[in-house]
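## retry 2 of 3
previous attempt timed out at serialization; input unchanged, resubmitting
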Amino acid sequence: MTESQASEPAINAGRGALVVLFLVTMIDMIGFGIVIPFLTYLVEDLAASEGIAEVGLWVGLLMTSYSAAQFLFSPLWGSISDRIGRRPVLMIGLVGNTVFFAMFGLANTLLIALSARFLAGVFNGNIAVARAYIGDVSTPTQLTTRMGLIGAAFGLGFTIGPFIGGELSNPAARWEIFVDTIFDDYPYFLPCMVAGLLSMISLIYAYFYLPESLPKSSRSTSDTDSWSTRIGRSFKQSFSMLNNGTISVIIWATMLFIFGFTIMHAVFILYTGMPIEDGGLSYNEAQNGRIFAVIGIAGIVTQGFLIGPLSRRFGSARLMPISCLTAGLGLVLIPYTDADWGYGQLLLVAVIIAVGSGIFQPSSSTVLTRIAKREGINLGIVMGAQESISSFSRIIGPLTGGVVWTFTIGRDWPFDYHTAFHLCGIMMVLAAALSLKVSRSFDDFGEES
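## retry succeeded, writing output
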């Protein structure tokens, strides 16, 4: 067998298979983002019926549970897919999505909502399996382009999810056709049902067009890579990278950036939904969804059109601290929006945040890749460590936001509803300081701009 033959994939994925993988990834982000516009209102409704006052804390818990489940169960799904193949694992995930999206929309207690959200995260923990599928079926020349599908699906999903969640929430209050129906009693069931239908359509499509990518001869027959083994190895590798020179600085900066960014996920709607007389904007679900859709679209434009020219002009390392400060400025400005000019001001702030985030993420990954190659460190271990730390930040970020909001709402400045957003800005300043250290190190290395 020649070297070129050895590098050929076991199967050649057709367009249908790639469409399924795109849909799986997009639905993952739809599942994450769909609740953002209405989550605060759902929690307020359920908390009022149960006599619970800690709304911010429960918002943080519901946001966190999804990411926590993904973090914990991704290694399990990866291990299972190594033994039984990628196709059945991806299809199981789509079935779970359909069921637990509906369960969340029909939740009538906070505990049921939390359980449904966690279980949806469990079954959406198969993005690593989608990446493994692409690795199975792609030649080296196809790999980069096809992995780019994952990034595109993430951006599109984060745009579509909040938009669906906002526009389809509480339909009985907006369209007469939904009055005196199940959607009147469960005002957030419709967006969840639509997400479930998208998942069901993807399942049917996968049944007909997604072939198995992992031949039986290549499957694992032992339990050496069990769930606990993979979790333990992931933690060990991640912590080893946190004490590894410049690489550790980048990973710490990434962790602080994502931590600050995801604090906003929990408190943004708590702020915009707050009455104007209390300092908020009195926004409804649809208005919130449109703001997050703008963040998604601006992020896509930034990563699709701006990052290339900016990287060539300034260099990826120099862009990192700038992007941190840009995103931080936008996050701090959120609670200072004037209600009379709120929508226009908030759209501008959303664009600032999206541009900062859209520049930071590819820039940090590029710098991390170059340093890993320069120092001869296994790229898979480095990227795995960065993803593990990022996932951990996505877990603690919303929970921290909910806790800070709960303990500061109703108090006097500076420890009031502004505080959580100030904390976002502090995290971004710390990330910028670390990024500046990386930038100076790269200047010594001689980065090409």
